[in-house]
Write a structure and sequence with these properties.
The complex is a heterodimer.
Chain A: E1 2-10, E2 15-21, H1 23-28, E3 34-37, E4 52-60, E5 63-69, H2 73-79, E6 86-93, E7 104-110, H3 114-126, E8 130-137, H4 146-151, E9 155-160, E10 167-168, H5 172-178, E11 184-188, H6 191-203, E12 208-211, E13 227-232, E14 235-240, E15 247-249, H7 255-258
Parallel strand pairs in A: 7-8, 7-11, 8-9, 9-10, 11-12
Antiparallel strand pairs in A: 1-2, 1-6, 2-5, 3-4, 3-6, 4-5, 12-15, 13-14
Chain B: E1 7-9, E2 12-14, E3 18-20, E4 42-48, E5 61-64, E6 67-70, H1 78-91, E7 96-101, H2 106-117, E8 123-127, H3 138-141, H4 144-157, E9 163-166, H5 174-183, E10 188-191, E11 195-198, E12 200-201, E13 206-207, E14 213-217, H6 222-233, E15 240-243, H7 249-257, E16 260-265, H8 268-271, H9 275-289
Parallel strand pairs in B: 3-4, 3-16, 4-7, 7-8, 8-9, 9-10, 10-15, 15-16
Antiparallel strand pairs in B: 1-2, 5-6, 6-14, 11-14, 12-13
Classes of the chains: A alpha/beta, B alpha/beta.
Chain lengths: 260, 306
């Protein structure tokens, strides 16, 4: 697919919001899915070679947005893309969050994990759910779009490791105290956090869905580079994060193999 | 579509010389959602073994400059499940099917080949060059005597299908291995597999890949591949399928000039599934514009005169 950049807005030194116009994508995409985006805006180079997997943060009209963090060469190049640039991507890819109506939900996001959680919060709110968002980062720079998030949630709890924004500490702490008041948990963020969230949810017997991130070459299910081990009954199965994921049942993920 | 790209490669009639490489195209079906796979000359499926193989622990891949490292570890569903679950659906698409296969032992190579010889596939590609598994694979591809032996034994049991042997670049002199294949009766050679590589995370000081080493592929390896296809072409008479970093039609022409009778597109399928289709269209256009009657006219036509 090809889309046109509407805006590529710097949120702070680390984070950007990229809005792309593409009717085809907007028609097909479902909440929780991701895209593999070509970060090279010129065709004459082969570096970086592979596309980058990015979670979709929002859809509005014929546009969709991505939130991304500058990590390496690919995301830096992406940050240099100007308005009106045509950008190509494979999409929509992967599994979706299970959508509920009129339930009490807790959403957890860690750092860049906010991307799919933002869209999920909006969707659940529209479906009449109670949406509490627990959003953690290392410092205040790692918690973005707070104004927008306030509008799409019932309660927004922000935590940072250094206390520079919100409560000082881990995002799992305030969540853990309230876990029993929810019908469903959703989370996206670092693997260690997702493991902790899943364990808390399982302890309280609340279903939990996590959106995982792995290095991917193709994003289409061919390279087998993004395997996630999942328990089904007595069996441990290999699932591709790009096709059977990125959304998995957190209670079934074999966390020892994921968090290494 | 015209006939200008039609290519006969060791008796198999391909609609064009662009084949997707093993390990980069799954069982073909993964790509049906993204491109019309019947446009392809052929598909070389993910390396099949006698029994199902789970592959290596994660992490398995890492991007490097203009390329990537992988140590998937030949994860595959095994020959039985391939024939039952994958092949019938793949066969519905009008493209040639090459089955890449491998074994942990000589006996396994022979057994898989025997089974595939009776299957509804067009050609076999024997992988003796995977750098990412401990047993089999590369052990057969880096010792000329073993290369001869496994090719010879497999050739003995094949009655129906042409045998192409995929060579490793991780040898000092690929000519010796090409010759061993030819002497043992191989019908064709494909070259090259990935180059053994490695990458370290300087912050954690750990290898990026759990297997420590991995196979390097992508545009970064193309000059090595071109050189090795040239060396192979100048030492054997059997046809060669050129592989290594192909991302556009110009690359295909370059491989043809040094002797590739057909090519495989690999890592580029990960970059953008549309690439092999673009290559086919662009290649056809190039031949037409330059009044070249067929792709085969280019094969081995590099000019080395001083």
């Amino acid at each position: 697919m090809v889309g046109k950049i509407v805006r590529n807005q710097k949120l702070n030194d680390k984070y950007y919001l990229l809005e792309i116009k593409c009717e085809e994508f907007v028609r097909e995409a479902k909440v929780g899915q991701f895209i593999m985006i070509n970060t090279r805006h010129q065709d004459y180079t082969n570096d970086p070679l592979l596309r980058r997997p990015l979670g979709v943060a929002n859809i509005e009209g014929d546009k969709f947005s991505l939130v991304y963090m500058i990590v390496g060469k690919g995301t830096r190049l992406l940050s240099e893309c100007q308005k009106d640039t045509e950008i190509s991507f494979s999409a929509p890819l992967g599994s979706t969050f299970t959508l509920l109506r009129k339930k009490r939900t807790a959403l957890l996001a860690g750092g860049i994990g906010i991307a799919p959680v933002y869209w999920l919060a909006k969707t659940l709110k529209e479906a009449g759910c109670v949406v509490d968002l627990y959003y953690g980062g290392r410092t205040m720079d790692d918690v973005v779009l707070l104004e927008e998030l306030k509008e799409t949630t019932d309660h927004l709890v922000v935590t940072t490791d250094d206390g520079s924004a919100g409560i000082k500490g881990l995002v799992t702490d305030p969540f853990g105290e309230n876990v029993n008041s929810y019908d469903q948990i959703y989370a996206c963020g670092p693997k260690g956090m997702l493991r902790a969230v899943s364990e808390i949810a399982m302890g309280a017997d609340v279903p939990v869905e996590v959106s995982l991130d792995e290095r991917m070459a193709c994003g289409l299910g061919a390279c087998l580079g993004c395997i996630i081990y999942v328990k089904e009954g007595d069996e441990t199965l290999q699932k591709r994060c790009c096709v059977e994921g990125p959304v998995f049942d957190g209670s079934k993920v074999v966390w020892d193999t994921v968090c290494k | 579509m015209s006939d200008i790209l039609k290519t006969t490669f060791c008796g198999v009639k391909f609609k064009n010389p662009v084949i997707t490489a093993s390990g980069t195209f799954g069982y073909g079906l993964e790509y049906v959602k993204h491109i019309d796979i019947s446009r392809l000359g052929g598909i070389s499926v993910k390396g099949i073994s006698l029994t199902e193989v789970p592959g290596n622990p994660m992490p398995r891949i890492m991007e490097t400059t203009s390329g990537m490292l992988n140590a998937i570890g030949l994860q595959n569903v095994g020959v039985e499940r391939f024939l039952k679950e994958k092949l019938p659906a793949l066969r519905k698409h009008d493209t040639k099917i090459i089955v890449n296969f491998w074994g942990k032992t000589l006996e396994e190579y022979v057994k898989v080949a025997e089974i595939l010889d009776d299957a509804d596939v067009d050609m076999l590609e024997m992988n003796i060059s995977c750098p990412n598994i401990k047993e089999g694979g590369i052990a057969f591809g880096t010792d000329p005597e073993m290369t001869y032996k496994v090719t010879n034994e497999v050739k003995k049991v094949l009655k129906n299908k042409p045998l192409m042997v995929k060579l490793s670049p991780n040898v000092t002199n690929i000519r010796v291995f090409a010759k061993a294949c030819e002497d043992a009766g191989a019908d064709a050679i494909s070259a090259i597999n990935t180059l053994l590589g490695m990458a370290i995370n300087i912050h954690t000081r750990k290898p990026y890949i759990s297997n420590v080493t991995g196979g390097l592929s992508g545009p970064a390896i193309k000059p090595v591949a071109v050189r090795m296809v040239h060396e192979t072409f100048s030492s054997v008479k059997i046809p060669i399928m050129g592989i290594g970093g192909i991302t556009n039609w110009q690359d295909v022409v370059e491989f043809a000039l040094v002797g590739a009778g057909a090519v495989q597109v690999g890592t580029a399928n990960f970059v953008d599934p549309q690439i092999p289709i673009n290559i086919i269209d662009d290649l056809e256009n190039h031949l037409k514009v330059n009044n070249i009657a067929s792709f085969s006219e280019l094969v081995g036509k590099a000019d080395f005169s001083k």
